[in-house]
Amino acid sequence: MKPIFYALILLLLMPLMTPFQNTAYAMEEEKPVTLHSEAAILIDGTTGQVLYEKDSDRPMYPASITKIVTGIIALENGNLEDMVTVSEAARNVEGTRVYLLEGEQVPLLKLVQGMLINSGNDAATAIAEYFDGSEAKFAERMNEFVRDKIGVTNTTFQNPHGLFNENHQTTARDMALITQYAMQNPQFRSIVGTKELGWNGEGWKTTIYNHNKLLWRYEGTTGVKNGYVDESGHTLVASVKRGDSEWIAVTLKAASSEFAYSDMEALFNYGFEQFRTNRVVLNPSLFQTYLDRYVIPEELVFTSRKDENFVIQINDASGQMVVSSLEGQNLYTEDLEPIAAAASRNRSSEKQQEDNPEGASIEKKAVPYKLGTGTTFVLTIFITLVFLILRKRIKRKNAL
Length: 400
What we know:
Elements: H1 2-17, H2 27-30, E1 39-44, E2 50-54, H3 67-77, E3 83-85, H4 88-91, E4 105-107, H5 108-118, H6 121-132, H7 135-150, H8 172-182, H9 186-192, E5 196-200, E6 205-209, H10 214-217, E7 221-229, E8 233-242, E9 245-254, H11 257-274, E10 275-281, E11 299-305, E12 310-314, E13 320-325, E14 330-335, H12 339-355, H13 373-399
Antiparallel strand pairs: 1-2, 1-9, 3-4, 5-6, 7-8, 8-9, 10-11, 12-13, 13-14
């Protein structure tokens, strides 16, 4: 009887566990998209919500999508008007080039454009040497940047351009988060969305065309970068915006360029058919009970199924704002800041400004929210305790 009794208990408890799964929309079970690429991910570029993934945490070779990181570092940390002298090493780097000449002086901004639009490996090496004197030293900067500023943990770069190195690896998920960060920079966004650009270099006078063909073939494409080396296969990162929704997708190791682009189109079609980015302006009068206790945001931005209705509630005890579907699916959760804490923070900020009259900015780092992890942990402990108590009681009864 014991095994049957235990099985019945577990069977009764199983339905309680399923609503708290930490996967968005049961992506792996749906299999909504058939892809040629070995790894892929589709996210909401605004909220970071994962809409689809396939082996998204598998370490793989990125090829030239590496240049997304080199580009955003250059734009954020360099003086774009600085003249960069092209070295012999930059002149002779293999692969795709913008045909820089040794000794040629090129503005940093132009190097970034040549690297991101025309995938110039020589431009990438020149940028690395401008910052740190060598590709190896710049790679250390790249790894620190993506780890500490963006928060990705499964990426290691060895060079600024993506030429093959067995230790130069990333994942689809990491590249999506890196791109989400980079696309918040207006100058980066403008460059990767540029279809063509006049190029007037000492060694090459031409019009360069963006290697990302999706800019011509998919409506609403806003960027970003493709890549290829033999070991990586065809890699692609792209972003598309229609209305309030902007998706970012990454595909890794497709057998052909056409497979990479068709996979990307399939991912974006799925995204626009199934999901939407919701921008909800909150009316404070609906939350009058909480106005004296919590800071109510002016707007909520979250992702949901396209035709999904939702409700917004505040947990009176915890001050947690929850957006859920009518079926009870958690769509978005935010811990509201208590009024007292906000006032204290404002006083601290004012004091910091007094102590720091130069006005140096204090960086605030966004951390993606994951649904259900705390609740799942508590529920697991609870179920375990109930099971142990019942087991002990049964043993006592049998002993009698």
